[in-house]
Amino acid sequence: MKKFFTKLKSNFVHQIFFAVLLNPLIYNFFKGKIYQGELKQYCLPVLNCYSCPAAVTACPIGSFQHMLSNFKYHFSFWIAGIFGVVGITAGSWFCGHACPFGLFQDLLNKLSNKNFTMPRILRYIKYPALIFLVILLPLLIKKPTFCSYLCPAGTLQAGLTLVWFNSFNLGFLYFWKISLLALFTFSSIAYKRPFCNTSCPIGLVMGWFNKISIYQLEVDNSKCIECDICREVCPADIYIYKNPKNTECVRCNKCIEVCPTNAIKLENKLLYKKGDDYAKSN
């Protein structure tokens, strides 16, 4: 148990904070009720199911799909705004620090002493997931298809709990979703964040902002010894020193904490030009 907790980095505190902030209504699990108050019109760029009994905010993917399938909804303006502000400011920071389902996968991965490398081709699943399940199919069949057929977070947060109060909803689709959740759950032990790295449309969109965000990871090549310790702790399993603006990066900042030569830093592009903070520290 002690070894388990020593593997946890400082972003774990942020993850716990946001998980509780987004899901404080724990007592609703025992009532089988879903909060539908004022806060449900808002969301953050993380995967947190609207139908989770404890949740007080909406899911951006679910809200966006409902808007596409029924144009009387206007959540998309809020979604575009929050994605834009967060993305331009910090890129995919929320993926690494605030996503409850990311936390779920991270905790499972700590149970293993060895991680396997995921085939790179699987990382492209997120593109058809975004194009077809999040955008095109909701437009065509008027149904939130990503939430209905793929999202394991919804199954974990809502499906497993609400079924006790609505057992009549059991059917092929339910067991299909349970199978997907089981797949991502067990694969999280052997692979780092399998859902995030293969199928998450939120991570895909937020990752695009990594190239233009105000806060950027910068690598001082004169200090970097390419020891690959950064990759060992990286949830995205990438070589950050090869491309600090990598769209797969979730900005968890674990690489900064473990770098033995302090070659990696988080830089505010509005305050410093590239390399200025290194010059000041020398």
Mean of the pLDDT scores? 90
Shape: globular
Whole-Å distance between the termini?
Answer: 40 Å
The largest sheet has its strands arranged as: 1-2
Secondary-structure-based class equals mainly alpha
Number of domains: 2
Q: Given the structure, what is the number of helices?
A: 15
Strand percentage: under 5%
Spans of at least 5 consecutive residues whose pLDDT stays below 50 are: 1-7, 277-282
Largest sheet: 2 strands, antiparallel
- Gyration radius from CA atoms, angstroms: 19 Å
Number of strands: 2
The ordered H/E elements are HHHHHHHHHHHHEHHEH
Pfam families: Fer4, Fer4_5
InterPro entries: 4Fe4S_Fe-S-bd, 4Fe4S_Fe_S_CS, Electron_Trans/Redox
Domain 4Fe-4S ferredoxin-type: 215-237, 238-269
Keywords: 4Fe-4S, Electron transport, Iron, Iron-sulfur, Membrane, Metal-binding, Transmembrane, Transmembrane helix, Transport
Structural description of this entry:
The protein is built from 15 helices and 2 strands. The chain is mostly helical. It folds into 2 domains: 2-207, no CATH class; 214-281, Alpha-Beta Plaits (2-Layer Sandwich). The chain has a two-stranded antiparallel sheet. The chain starts with a helix and ends with a helix. InterPro entries: 4Fe4S_Fe-S-bd (IPR017896), 4Fe4S_Fe_S_CS (IPR017900), Electron_Trans/Redox (IPR051684).
Attribute tags:
49% helix; single chain; mainly alpha; 15 helices; disordered N terminus; globular; 282 residues; 2 domains; Alpha-Beta Plaits; two-stranded antiparallel ribbon; 2 strands; disordered C terminus
Provide a compact summary of the structure.
The chain has 282 residues and is mainly alpha-helical. Helix content is 49%, strand content 4%. This is 4Fe-4S binding protein.
